[in-house]
Amino acid sequence: MEREVSILRDIIRQALMRKIAVKKGKRKAVIQIEPNPRLVYGVKFAVAMTMCLTTLEMAHMAFLGRWNSEIFAAITGLIGTISGIFISQKT
């Protein structure tokens, strides 16, 4: 379980890493800037909560046979937050 968590953290860290081209004399070098660890943990938490809420929505539909719009609103809010973080971190 711990290995799976570290793999997820590494994927998120790689996705949030910035690459900056720096000119050194006649050649260019690429510098990678690590993201803040708090940002990585925040994105990891948001992804985990999205998965939990999706499971809760599926269980709600399976057992009660109805769509819960409040859970769906929370899911779409988290997805918007996660995509906003990735888009703003890369620009």
Describe the protein.
- The chain is α+β, with helices and mostly antiparallel strands and 91 residues long.
- It has one domain.
- The protein is 71% helix and 15% strand.
- A two-stranded antiparallel ribbon has the order 1-2.
- α2 packs antiparallel against α3.
Number of strands: 2
C-alpha-based Rg, rounded: 18 Å
Oligomer: single chain
What percent strand?
15-25%
| Main pleated-sheet profile | 2 strands, antiparallel
The chain-level mean pLDDT equals 84
Summary, kept brief:
The protein has 91 residues and is of the alpha+beta class. Helices cover 71% and strands 15% of the residues. The chain is built from 3 helices and 2 strands.
Primary descriptors:
2 strands, alpha+beta, 91 residues, 71% helix, single chain, two-stranded antiparallel sheet
Topology:
Blueprint lengths: L1 H15 L1 E7 L2 E7 L3 H28 L4 H22 L1
Antiparallel strand pairs: 1-2
